[in-house]
Amino acid sequence: MTETGVARRVPVADRTSGFTESVIREMTRLVNTFHPDDGINLAQGFPDFAAPQAIKDAAAAAIHADVNQYAVTWGAPAFRNGVADKTERFYGFRPDPDREITVCCGATEAMISTMLAVVDPGQEAIVLEPFYENYGPDCILCGAEPRFVSLHPPDWALDFDELRSAFTPRTRAIVLNTPNNPTGKVFSRSELEQIAKLCIQHDVLAITDEIYEHIVYDGLQHIPLATLPGMRERTVTINGMSKTFSVTGWRIGYALAPPQITASIRKVHDFLTVGAPAPLQEGGIAAMALPTSYYEQLQGEYEERRDFMVSALREAGFGVFSPHGAYYVMTDISGFQRGNDVAFADWLVRDLGIAVVPGSSFYSRPGAGSHMVRFAFPKRMETLRRAAERLSAIRPLVG
Ligand code: GLN
Fold first, then answer.
1. Residue 235, ligand 1, Cβ within 6 A
2. Calpha distance 297→301 (Å, rounded)
3. Residue 18: pLDDT above 90?
4. Which of 115, 121, 169, 389 has its CA 20 to 30 A from that of 297?
5. Ligand 1 pocket, 44 CB below 6 A?
6. What top-level class would CATH report for the domain 69-289?
7. Global pTM value
8. Could you tell me which CATH number the domain at 14-50+293-397 has?
9. Is residue 242 lining ligand 1, measured as CB closer than 6 Å?
10. How far out from the chain centre does Cα 265 lie?
């Protein structure tokens, strides 16, 4: 109340009350606060190893050559060309750099720009849960209602009857993330075919987050939904440099979409950000030209990290949902006597100096995910070994 007795309105928009601050980034802050010198951040998924020299050199050279002003709003032409070439090299279709590619400030901006471009207030977007925590707020920022459909543990199976019944006349889009954060699920061709069939039947757009496209294990292949029959014209494929080239701080992402949709995404993107960092897009040109051996090496190194983390966590007493892709492990903490996911994560970060993400932050339903925490492992083996050593100390507490 003010002195005059009138209730003071909090000067913020209602739309921001519908979601909380990012738990992932909150955990990063906590580990830095409690353990500034020896904390191990296995919460926020970013690498602690070097990015490829060739792309750093190209970005640095661009800055020195004064590529320091705005790039073309929807992306430097040579970078868009590089994205088109690389997409063709791996998946056999070539988006038109002039009409079908929008370079954004990370996949995060590509996702919200896309949603704002295609989803109207009052419409619905289907989101599979557990989900990467941005998708819920993305829907709310569009004034749209997320409709959550479960991926069922232990193998994160999709029940197609449940999915089918989530489609309503108001459904505008389905958000799909494969390889998946946080579960590590890599959607199979047959699953994608069933999703595609529903999208076509209900005239719904697919917005696919494929940022982990090159991080797949066990001989699996990432399949872009846009490559399925009838899907190219109704899919927005979101991707970026962060994970594949270990440059999460560069904020270079992109959206591939049919021309009409691209035109709309470009308008939103323009007014949100004007454009992505110009010199870093020059680094992106070098990245897109890296040979296939680069990707093979990346994949091999991640598989080694995955194997190590899965066995270290099992050894320490966690129930482990071994991932087939991306760089996270969801774990079941039921065996420990440490309360729910939030209490457990809090204890781990304060006492052990290891940050993880409470499982509930990937779920819409209260209580769901409260027996899980997510570990991120895009780290040097040395970092993972240190983490494993600390975690081995908690083994005796398993009930
Ligand atoms: N995608 C990463 C994660 O899930 C990082 C998220 C972020 O901070 N933007 O941890």
1. no
2. 6
3. no
4. 389
5. yes
6. alpha beta
7. 0.95
8. 3.90.1150.10
9. no
10. 19
